[in-house]
Amino acid sequence: MEITTETIRHTAKLSRITLSAEEEKGMEKHFAAMLEQVKTLDTFDASAVSATAHILSSVNVFRDDVPGEPFDREKLLSCAPERDEDSYVVPRVVE
Amino acid sequence: MKDMVKKSLAEIKEDIAAGRVSSVEVTEAVLESIKEQEDLGAYVTVCAERAMEEARAADKAVAEGKSAPLLGVPIAVKDNICTEGVRTTCASKFLENYIPPYDAFVVKKLKAAGAVIVGKANMDEFAMGSTSEFSAYKVVKNAVDPTRVPGGSSGGSAVAVASYQAYASLGSDTGGSIRQPASFNGVVGLKPTYSAVSRNGLVAFASSLDQIGPIARNVADCRTVYDVIKGHDAGDSTSYAGDLDKGADFTSLKGRKIGVAKEFFPAALNATIRAALEKAIKFYEDNGAEIVETSIGSFDMALACYYILSSAEATSNLSRYDGIKYGRRAEGCKTLDEIYYKSRTEFFGAEVKRRIMLGNFVLSSGYYDAFYLRASKARTLIKKDFDNALAGCDALICPTAPTTAYKLGSNAGDTTAAYLGDVFTVPVNIAGLPALSVNCGYDGDGLPIGMQLIGKPYCEKTLLSLAEIYEKGGERV
Fold it and tell me: Which residues on chain B are in Cβ contact (under 8 Å) with A76?
């Protein structure tokens, strides 16, 4: 398959990343090289094989609710990119 | 002071415990070594004050007659492992000022074992890379030859240990990131079985492949750190609660079988590396092990499989960096979209953007079946091949990397060249197996060659025993 500028732009949108024209060209070249490598995966009959999403054979285990120490509020708030006293500051999203 | 930093972890631990030297003196010596070798770029953050506090606490514990596996010993921790109160940047501008509100499970374990954490080791941004040149702060240089790459992504962790800036370190390995830098710097690196060491507090790259492990200057020290950090953790839903010691401790090779899979020795393999490995194989055979030929038929698919799966998982994991929750936010943004776009564009480096882009591509509508699903199916075949090969032997032996350390900047302009260097390490992560890299010689330029031992799940003991026997008696090229 051919990688077009449109494919790169669509993928950049999905990634929430802005690329310059030069970066778009570089990304096209990178994608093309990767797709060339990926051809090695065309060598088996995929219809006969089940997918492995995870290597472990274990299944989900539910644990009892155990009361514990919550994170320190001030420590968590100190991670906020922008804050106003006890709140995270975010732009208005509802008009 | 200079000699002190060159002692092994076991020796310095014993010196501290016996009162021959204090942890404060040892920590000062290591901090001095770090300062003198700043140019190697091994650390993003050095925690001198905290380390001295921890060293004083260790000395107090020794005076009170207490003992612990790492009491008073300076250790480095890769900068993608959370340390409460000490910034954890992942070598990314995005997390430049991120100070985690908690310690990773392994850091809690290190602290409980009395370790002194001297600093946060430099790396490729978000652990994406094989040369540690993708750090957003400074390039890491090889400890043996500073004009060359140290390997990656745990380049800082390996260099810190190899250049006496720590007695051991923690790294993380998603596709070879502990083993390959260990190989390039002539030290020992262990990638444990997936789920044997908790990932709680490890900044996620590719969650089905990531694993924390130790790097040390010899096999025994590597074992000591592994024994400290392994174990079940309710805080990691993939953490294994069963028997983690399915392997065996042994000092004789009689009755041991070592597998050689032909795919790990391609015709084009560097002749010096081949010769070093052949010599190591002969050592095992001469000392009583049986060498068995085996095969990983799906080997050729592993690299493509890895780059699809790891990029897909990375794109999902890194969607959390949105300029809202933690990390940095670009300035002057008025809308939510502006925050997303500007923060991610400004603070992610080029390699991270390539992985996110590729990941979104292989997961996107119309391409999912052809790429992601197909790679997930290839993973089934690769795992099955390893299961079959390991059914007939205790471990597989192969080179850790197809080259020794190459010159810094060698891959400039070719975004996929370094990926090929992961060819012998990525299959192990795909199959979730334990593997260890130990030095087995030097090339014509004096650069270390690494040999990789790949084991059965939870058989780290077997790998450590095999490596230790070799380390004590193996002839180098």
Answer: 101
